[in-house]
Each structure stands twice: as C-alpha cells, then as structure tokens.
Batch of 3 targets.
Target 1
Amino acid sequence: MAATRFAYVKTYELPDPILPNTYFVVRIDGQSFHRFSDTHAFVKPNDIRALRLMDNAAEDVMRALPDAMLAFGESDEYRKTSTIYNRRESKILSTVVSQFTSSYVFHWSQYFPDQMLQYPPTFDGRVIVYPSEQEVKDYFAWRQADTHINNLYNTAFWALVQQGGMSTSEAHQKLKGTVSADKNETLYSQFGVNYNSVEARFRKGSVVVKVERPIEEPPKDSVSSAQSDNSPLDQVGSDNNDAGEKDAEAQRIQHRRKKKETKKAEKAANRKREWVLSVMHCDVIGNEFWQSYPSILQ
C-alpha cells in the first residue's frame, strides 16, 4: 500500500480476531426464503433440487477454504487451530457468505434449468465461537434436532393441505400445540405415511465432511537403494589404527542415522493425504459419527 498522507485512515480499522485455541462455526441463513421459495415455485414440503443446490454451495465453500472441516445445512465448522485470514472474524464471515451466495447463484441453472432466477437471493451470516469439542458436537446436534422438528411439522402440514384438502390456516390450527407423537399419528392414520420411512436427507439434513485420502507415492528405484546400501561409508576398512577406527565408526553411525532419517521422510511422504468431500445424510447426534471422523475436531 502506498505510504501517502491519507494512509492514516487505516488506523480506524478495528482488529477483530477470533479467540485463539477455540473452534468457530460460521452459520449462514437465507434472507426471506419463504418468499424466495414461493416466487420460484419450490416443491413442498421439500424440493430436492433446492436442497442439492445448497449442498453444492456448501461443498464449494469447503473446497475454497482449507480449514473448513464440516458442514451441516448452512453451517461450516473450522479447525480449532485454524489461522485462516489470521482468524479475523470480518474476513472469514464475509468470505464464507459471499462464496456461498455466489456459488448458489452460479449453479442455479444446473438444478433449476427451467426456472430463471426472478431476483438475487440474499444470505446473512454470523460467527459463533466454542471453547471445546463438546460445544461443537452439541451445536451440530442442535441443528440436526431442529431439522427433524421442522421437517416433521412441514411434512404433516403439507400433507393436510395437499392431500387433506385443508387451507393453510386450517392446517396451522390443527397442528397448533401438537407434539411429535401427534404429528406422526396424523401422518400415519390419515395419509398412511410412516415418518421414519421419509428420505433421510429430509429428516436428518445433509452432512458434508472433509476427509483425508492417502496418496501413495511410487517406490524408490531399487538400483539407487542398492547403491545407497553399499555406500563407501559402510565399507570403511578395519585395518586402520585406533584413531582411524573411531573415525570410521563415527562415520558409520552418522550414515546409519541419515539412512534412518531418509526412510522416515519417505514414509512420511507416502502418508501424504489429500482432502475429499463426502456428502451424507446420517446422525450427528451421539458419539458414533465423531468417532468415525476424528480429523474433524483435530
């Protein structure tokens, strides 16, 4: 940046680093998406096209940001040790939201080929900081529980409207004050729907995990290995005097140490890994998921 007399204005920029040694989650929400879904004729209660588009946008965010390890719906979780953008909250938040929004718009025609965007969608975001693994696990459990609650309500509501002939206000009134068991009973007794048989994507949401895949490197040339094994340093003669023997032994020890370090480095190189994304529709409530993907919280 040019050092001019106007540069002093930069001092007004406030630092906003996220606390070190903490996990942070970026949560993204669509602005007025009820109106957006109505305008673009989303299928009720769930439009598979819209959900896949959301998944695609989340995947694009995770590809763009190396430290994003897990996404659920519209939430991305970052490593505790992440130093992305020096942990500046404003930079992280603006980057994630803009990446998600641009990806959503960019891929729209892929999922809605017969439906043009009527107006640009808008997303807002926030950063939430958590001190330990347990709070992170509980956050995603909360989001999945919320997904279940909302989807059960919407499934029952739209069954009453689309199949039961009720108006939206009548359906709202019928479901007012009901618990999960009541909604399950309504679905099964009136429409023959077992909620547990509803597609897992709708009941549990989408879980996007960044996992490591090993990259196997080609083996070293056997000839060079043989030559390395027959290094002159290992062939130091035994006819030297005592001083020469000590020097030769020191050289042999040094050479063996170097060979050991070289092998260790080669093993490390063979364990190089690349990140791949996996989209699942599974439970994140409980320990089984987290035990299966320990790298998420490392």
Target 2
Amino acid sequence: MIPDRSRAHELIDHLPRQTWHERSFAYWAEKQLVANDSWWKPLSTVVVGTATTTMSLFLRLGFRKVVVDDLHKLTDVLERERNRPIVTVANHESTADDPIIWGVMPARLWWKPDCTRWTLGARELLYKHPILNAFFALGQTIPTVRGDGIYQLAVEIGLRKLNENKWVHVFPEGRVNQEAQMLRFKWGVGRMIMEAERTPIVVPMFFTGTKQIMPLRQKVPVPRPNPLKSTLYMKVGDAMDFAPLVGEWKAARAKLSSEEAVRLDEQVRIAIVDQLWGSVNSLKIESAVEIQKLGLDDNQ
C-alpha cells in the first residue's frame, strides 16, 4: 500500500499536548518530519557532526582495538551520486550502539548532511525531557514506540526521509539483544522498503563489542570501555536491491481485491525481512573467525 502523504501529519495532529513535555514532543516531531526551517539543517548538522566526532574520539581513546571490514561497501554507496535512498540494517547489542558504531565512519563524512543517517530510536528511552526532545530530534533520531506496529508515526517519518533520498538506519530486532542468536526482524523496515517512492538500496551490517562495554541491567546505564581490553568489530555486507521484488509486488497488487492485497503485502514484508535477517546472520557467521581472534565470541 503506497503511503498516504497526509498520514504522518494526521498522527502528529493527534498527539497529546496537555503538558510542557507533550507539547515539546509534538513540536519536534513536526519539525523533524518536515525539516525545512532555515535553522534546521545547520543545527542538525552541528548535533550529528559533533556526536560523530565525539564517538570517533571515544573509539580511539576508549578501545584497545577497532576492526572494520569492508566499510567501503557503505561509504561508496553514500558518496556516489545517487537517485535512490539508502537503508542500513544491523543487529542491536546495546542501547549505546547508535551513536557509537558511527564513530568508525571516515572524517570526511562527519559533517555532510547527505551522508549522515536518520535512525529509529526508542521514544521511552530518549525523548524523556524537552531538552532531550530537541537534542534527539536534531540528531536525526526518530522516536519509535515499541509495540505500536508498522503504521506508527516513526515509520511514517522514516518513509518521508526515504522519499527525500536520505539514509535511514534501522535495528530491526526491535530491542537490545545480547544473546548468541539474533531475534527475528520486525516488519517496519519491510514496509519502508516496499512503500518508498524509489526502492532503497539496502546495506546489511554486523557488529559486536558494544555489549561488553554496556551489558544489560547494569546499575548505571552508561558505556564503560576499557582502553586496555575493549574491542569493537564491524563487517559491512554487499548492497541488496529489492527493486525487482517490489516491482512484481506492485504489479500483482493492482490486480487483487483489497483483502487479497493485504495478504500479499504481509507475504512480501515477511520475505523482505527474512532476506535481511539472513544477510546480517551470514555476516555474523562469516565474522566468526575474526570475532574469536579478537576475544569477542559469545562463549567467553
């Protein structure tokens, strides 16, 4: 189903505005959706650029070793002249994954708005105060409510950014997972890939090392790297093109009844997220030797 262009605005119109915090959240949700005020781009560039610069220093000073394989598979897609948006997907080891993992990006991209990600982040963890609302909105972190499904405001904003030819990063597991097996991926990313005006180029990624510096249920939820021990490993996979599948879906859908179309939508979403899960899991398997060498295997 191609998204109704007014749906995101309708969802924002229905946000509660009884308290200062609620009014602030609604204000920044609308600003983030449109992002066309004269002040938005320079302020957002400063927030994202500063955060990325800080994370690069954090990795350099706080980690013993940072190993990244095939980062060019992402940077090449970002830097070339493109007429399609980008989606990246990765596993989710800790609440600090974003922005830590973007500290590996080359310095030439830190302050380029077209080469910085939008991402979906848990509203209940990030958007807790009017000042944080402003910071995370300008930091291109879209507030997501876990359990609200694939037609929630976060997915609508994500679609808007893809339709503006932006880069959107998603952690499709939907929550932090520090177990050996990845969780099945949520369907929201499948909907965004299917319904974007131009089918995104999708780049899968796998990383590990953040769960060691920020385990779940620690008393103070802040990263605690050890410069003598902490290690981060990341592997970037080959770009995936779902344009043929999406084209077939659109052609088939046009011939179906509403009820049949809904069933087809679900089947295609499942097929897409299953392929994404398989790609990220393959990267994890391919990385096993390097992970063991670095002492990051789950059996330690």
Target 3
Amino acid sequence: MSSSGFSLDQLSGNGSLSKDDVMQQVKSELAMANAQELISNINKHCFKLCVPRPGSSLSSSEQDSLGRCVDKYLASWDTVSRAYVAK
C-alpha cells in the first residue's frame, strides 16, 4: 500500500478505484497539507509575536494576544483563499 492509502494495483488501474476516487483522495490530502501549513504558520508567527519569553505557562495577556493573532491570521487566510479560489 502506498502512503496515499491506495495499493499500487489500484493506482495503476488494475484495482477498483475510479478516477473520481483518486481525485477525492488527492483533494483530501491537499486539504490536510494546507491545514498543516496553516497551523505551522500560525504557530510560527503568533507565538513569536505574543510570547516574548516562553515559560511553563502563558500569562493572561499572552493568551489574549494569541487569541487575537490567531483570529486575525485565520481571517486573512480565509480572505486570501477565497480570492484564490475565485480566480
């Protein structure tokens, strides 16, 4: 079985997967990769901005800052994604 969850026979056309099945799997994997990239970028940017001195816990101001940063980052990402899809 390949890393995509399909066997080599299925991917080569000897199995029972249709073109639609393969396309759905590719879309699913792309969505997962996009979500992972989004989370990674949020962690990188917001944590750096909101937590100047990491410790064993977050202060209330750091928690508030992270919440606002994540909200803004998600809103921006949503706007860009919608513009990209509309092309």
